[in-house]
Amino acid sequence: MADTIRPAYALSFAAVCSRSVKHTRKQKRLRISIDGLPNAEQTLTVMDAWNPLKTSSLTDIRRDIGSSDLRDEILVGLNSRSKYLPSVLLWDNQGLARFKAVRNTTSIDYYPSRKETELIKGNTAEIARTISTGATLVELGSGCIECHGLLGSYDDFLAWLVQKPQQLKSPVILLWLGNSIGNLDASDASALLTRFGSCMVTEDLQFIIGVDGCQDQSQIERCYNPANAVTREFLMNGLDQANKVLSQSVFRKGEWTCIGFYDTMDHSWKSYYVARRDLELETAESSIMIGKGERILAIRSAKWTQCEVEQVSSAGGFRVAKTWKDDKTTYGNMSVPASSGIGSRG
């Protein structure tokens, strides 16, 4: 792994809100009573995280360097020995709409969002008990939020925190749901946890992370198989976005197909673009030779065991304090507070 950390573009929305926000009728509200807290009646909101972003207040925190960073990341990926494209290319407005089609069309087989929603609903009271009254909730990667929102990448949010630390009142709980952590490899996920811990000017930082731990390879394949037309269209949209960022038609869809498989070595489903013939990709900077059958990674979705999640958390300066799992223990939410010295002032 290179010393430099690749930009963590995964799902590129960060929404900041507090529990005192008045939620709209379109959201599902679960009102519960919690013993032992000053405010006996607490409200948690369960939202469809895959709908397009809807917000009454959206602040654009993207930095001017964003597009050049993404262009550079594309070129780095194409020139790497194990070629990849940054997965942020999949999540433009059209990509979000196509992913919603994936979820709706393959709703029976696409289990992650269903499992997570069931899990949160079934453990609402217990999850809420881990959140102190007056805490600031920050949801990373929100696809549907109707309070104050921030538009940008994880890197943009980290930069914003450094500039405006007073915006977050301690304690701070970062909600990282939807197995978004699984779009990163283990070392990058740990590095991102470390960066969040290091930039937070609070003595009390905690993550609540949604993790897909499914090890049933047949179920995983049914969920992500690019042989499904809507899944393939979702992936192919990434090539269109790469062309837009590069400002030229480097990728022609007819020259590519999509495949996917479960990597038993690192417990991840990986989706790839595969060249149908020998290709020469012409960019403004160089020509890149691609052999017939050569693969370019489009996106990964890790299926880590609890032991692996604990290792990722520990390497990032955190520890797993509490877990909630579905009845088949394939999907879990984990409370991950910072270890001593991570997230503290100074």
Task: Describe the 3D structure.
- The chain has 346 residues and is of the alpha+beta class.
- It has helices spanning 66-78, 93-105, 112-122, 124-129, 154-163, 186-199, 217-224, 229-246, 306-315; strands at 13-18, 28-33, 41-46, 57-60, 136-140, 148-151, 172-176, 205-212, 256-263, 268-275, 279-282, 287-290, 295-302, 322-325, 331-337.
- An 8-stranded mixed β-sheet has the order 4-6-1-5-7-8-15-14, with helices on one face.
- It is globular, with a radius of gyration of 20 Å.
- The protein starts with 12 loop residues before the first strand and ends in a 9-residue tail after the last strand.
- Mean pLDDT is 76; it is low at 1-56 and 340-346.
Sequence stretches where pLDDT stays below 50 over 5 or more residues: 1-56, 340-346
- Main sheet overview: 8 strands, mixed
**How many strands appear in the DSSP assignment?**
15
**Rg measurement, Å:** 20 Å
Q: Please tell me the overall pLDDT.
A: 76
Q: Give the helix tally.
A: 9
* Helical content (DSSP H or I, runs of 4+): 25-40%
* Order of adjacent strands in the largest pleated sheet: 4-6-1-5-7-8-15-14
User: Which overall shape is indicated by the principal axes computed on the Cα atoms?
Assistant: globular
**Secondary-structure element string:** EEEEHHHHEEHEHEHHEEEEEHEE
Question: In angstroms, what separates the terminal alpha carbons?
Answer: 29 Å
| Structural class based on helices, strands and sheet pairing | alpha+beta
**Percent of residues in beta strands:** 25-35%
